[in-house]
Design brief:
44% of the residues lie in helices and 6% in strands. The protein is mostly helical. It has one domain. It has a two-stranded antiparallel sheet with strand order 1-2. A two-stranded antiparallel ribbon has the order 3-4. Helix 1 runs antiparallel to helix 4, helix 1 runs parallel beside helix 5 and helix 3 packs across helix 4. The protein is globular.
């Protein structure tokens, strides 16, 4: 007979609770759960589209900001009273092109030309590059090493964008 304690194990009659290794009581007839801490999940590698969207948002915000040249470094005094991150867009694209061209990564060089309308020291658009990668992904046939190269290029671009944020743009 249950004497008002609810569960037979609590009334002193019926099955007794089982203790696990640590001495905690488990429900009758059941084993206690393993208290070994689970290892943290391994973060997945970012996809080209997700990383491109993230960077596009940052670039869009940064490219709209203005900074007074008197607040910048001494090298910026020749740019007038105000400058934008977007004023450095061509230099960033030239840097990416030169780095991946020197490394022999023709895929990234082609990606810059195709998706950013990049022409060395003449033209190119970071926003167009990121927008295209976010919506269309990499070039046809991308996979493995090509995708890794694209992600590496996005990492370099992220470092450039982050450096502008750290400078106060």
């Amino acid at each position: 007979m249950n004497r008002g304690w609810g569960h037979p194990a609590m009334s002193g009659r019926g099955a007794r609770g089982v203790r696990d290794k640590a001495g905690s009581k488990a429900a009758p007839g059941k084993t206690a759960p393993d208290k070994t801490p689970a290892s943290p999940p391994v973060p997945a590698a970012p996809s080209i589209a997700i990383e491109s969207l993230r960077l596009l948002g940052k670039w869009t915000l940064l490219s709209q900001r203005h900074v007074s040249a008197d607040m910048g470094c001494a090298c910026c005094t020749g740019f007038g009273s105000s400058m934008r991150v977007q004023d450095f867009e061509q230099q960033i694209l030239d840097y990416l092109h030169d780095k991946y061209s020197a490394a022999g990564n023709a895929h990234v060089v082609a990606l810059l030309a195709d998706r950013a309308a990049f022409r060395h020291q003449e033209a190119g658009s970071i926003a167009d590059l990121l927008r295209s990668l976010a919506t269309r992904g990499g070039l046809p046939g991308d996979g493995g090493a090509r995708a890794a190269g694209t992600l590496a290029m996005l990492g370099d671009l992220a470092n450039s964008i982050d450096s502008f944020e750290q400078m106060g743009f």
